[in-house]
Design a protein that fits this description.
By secondary structure, the protein is an alpha+beta fold. It has one domain (4-75): Eukaryotic RPB6 RNA polymerase subunit (Alpha-Beta Complex), CATH 3.90.940. The protein has one helix and four strands; from the N terminus they run βαβββ. A four-stranded mixed sheet has the order 1-3-4-2, with no helix packed on it. The longest helix has 11 residues, at 18-28.
């Protein structure tokens, strides 16, 4: 089976540390429940040992906006 995380269309997913999550929530003045969700079964994170409530930073690269960061909290489905 091909490793999809190596495909050029799959953005980079990085698991945040608890300290980084705390800082993120403080900066945006939000709670964990207000973050968009990502399934623990998502192929992009299934090999990263993701647990419920982990937060991932997703870096997308585009031609118009060089890089954009998005954040997702892991949910079990």
């Amino acid at each position: 089976m091909a490793e999809i995380t190596k495909h050029s269309f799959v953005p980079k997913h990085t698991k945040l540390t608890p300290e980084e999550v705390e800082e993120l929530l403080k900066i945006y003045n939000i709670t964990l429940k207000q973050l968009p969700k990502i399934s623990s079964k998502d192929p992009a994170i299934r090999d990263i040992e993701a647990s419920k409530s982990d937060v991932f930073k997703i870096i997308r690269v585009s031609k118009t906006n060089k890089e954009a960061a998005f954040y997702r909290v892991v949910v079990n489905e």
